[in-house]
UniProtKB/TrEMBL annotation:
Protein name: Fido domain-containing protein
Gene3D superfamilies named among the record's database cross-references: Fido-like domain
Residues forming the catalytic site: H209
Any one Gene Ontology molecular-function term assigned to this protein's record: ATP binding
PANTHER family in the cross-refs: FIDO DOMAIN-CONTAINING PROTEIN, FIDO DOMAIN-CONTAINING PROTEIN DDB_G0283145
Keywords, sorted A to Z: ATP-binding, Nucleotide-binding
Domain of life: Bacteria
Ranges where the Fido domain occurs: 116-285
Residues annotated as binding ATP: V162, G163, N164, H165, D213, G214, N215, G216, R217, I218, A219, R220
Matches recorded under InterPro entries: Fido (IPR003812), Fido-like_dom_sf (IPR036597), Fido_containing (IPR040198)
């Protein structure tokens, strides 16, 4: 089927309102995410969200077949690249994903943008692809034995087929994307319709397939931006982790929502109502699963125990490659996490150490990026470097060898 009419061919735009399960799931996502956010100090959230951008990059790229470990992504952020060309290329892709997340955040922090507009969606693509090395900006078309350059921010200029799905013609993309914007613009939606709009628009953007390459990554970056705008606490959990861990279900549900309407009991649109309903249920259940997982990691007593256990392991020289920490370092990390930040001059009071020793412990924590500061002498706040993440947040991402958590109470 050739899709040229966005008013008919992209319908239905939302799951059926009669589906009470979807409404109930949407309410749970909103409430549970807000509860998770309320349990963590606002300043501490910033350090956690910064770390989770690396994790988000890891899982989003994993969906595309790039398995660059978060430790290697962090190395790339610090301009420490592998000497192996293939591994270096994957590091570059993953680092760019992190960079683009931060740039989008900065842009939205300065002025309001319509994130469903053609301008913003093409901006995401432009930000990603203009940072790629020139030799990574090509796709290969087997049938024509042709190498095609992907122009950053440019809508595709040819017809494509994605599995069994034939997206709209390239000449109709502007019409479809303008209709997409009219339907899913956040300002036009209210209540649970906003998060349901995030789910629906995630599929419909992939269905339109606006770019020659990178549609999956761009759709997930778009959805992260959308979710950040409508869900309190988003960023403390990310949906890409859930998609990657259930990749087969993710792809299967996307394909199901691509299908044309099946008979009189499958809605009144051109596409399958059941397919879209099922995808939205999968999307929202994935949200709940990730919120629950991250919530379990932030259970107060358990997290503080893991924080103390990490310092104990460092103190006992049980973490390879890391210098020992004084056990009193735990009190500084705990204070920063619970209170958001503390003044450097309080280090001796918090640890019970002499001023000089406390300053040295504080410096070591800053050097190890367990604490950070916005200015050289300003207050310090909690941070999560990747090298500590698997001890503090077990199962957040795959461990490297010998990275296992030991909880040590009473030390």
């Amino acid at each position: 089927m050739i899709y040229n009419n966005p008013f008919n061919h992209m319908t239905p735009f939302f799951p059926s309102e009669q589906d009470g399960e979807i409404q109930e799931l949407a309410v749970q996502v909103i409430q549970n995410s807000a509860k998770l956010s309320g349990n963590i100090h606002e300043i501490s959230q910033k350090g956690i969200i910064k770390h989770l951008r690396i994790i988000n990059s890891y899982y989003s790229n994993r969906i595309e077949g790039n398995f660059t470990h978060p430790i290697d992504i962090e190395r790339a952020i610090n301009n420490d690249y592998s000497k192996e060309p293939e591994k270096r290329e994957l590091q570059v892709e993953s680092k760019i994903h992190v960079d683009v997340q931060e740039i989008i955040n900065e842009i939205l922090g300065k002025d309001e943008r319509d994130i469903c507009s053609i301008d913003f969606i093409t901006l995401i693509h432009k930000l990603f692809y203009e940072r790629l090395p020139q030799d990574l900006r090509y796709v290969y078309e087997k049938e024509k034995n042709e190498k095609i350059e992907v122009i950053p921010g440019q809508l595709r200029q040819r017809e494509v087929k994605v599995g069994n799905h034939i997206p709209p013609t390239h000449s109709s993309l502007n019409k479809f994307l303008n209709r997409f914007r009219d339907i899913y613009c956040i300002n036009n939606l209210h209540g649970t319709k906003k998060i349901i709009g995030a789910a629906s628009s995630h599929h419909r953007l992939l269905w339109i397939h606006p770019f020659l390459d990178g549609n999956g990554r761009i759709a997930r970056l778009y959805t992260d931006t959308y979710m950040n705008s409508v869900i309190e606490g988003y960023g403390l959990w990310t949906i890409s982790r859930g998609f990657a861990r259930n990749r087969d279900s993710y792809m299967r549900n996307l394909e199901s929502a691509d299908l044309n309407r099946k008979g009189n009991f499958d809605g009144r649109g051109c596409l399958s109502q059941k397919g879209l309903n099922d995808f939205c249920i999968f999307f929202l259940e994935t949200c709940l699963d990730q919120i629950e997982f991250m919530g379990s990691l932030f259970e107060f007593d358990d997290f503080i125990d893991r924080l103390e256990g990490y310092v104990f392991l460092r103190h006992k020289k049980m973490i390879p490659g890391k210098t020992p920490l004084k056990k009193e370092a735990f009190y500084l990390l705990k204070e920063a996490y619970l209170c958001g930040e503390f003044n450097r001059g309080e280090a001796d009071r918090l640890t019970g150490l002499s001023k000089r020793t406390a300053r040295n412990v504080l410096k070591q924590l800053i050097d190890d990026k367990l604490l950070q500061s916005n200015t050289p002498k300003g207050p310090v706040h909690f941070n999560i470097p990747v090298h500590a993440a698997n001890y503090l947040f077990p199962d957040l991402f795959p461990s490297l060898p010998k990275q296992k958590l030991v909880i040590v109470k009473g030390h």
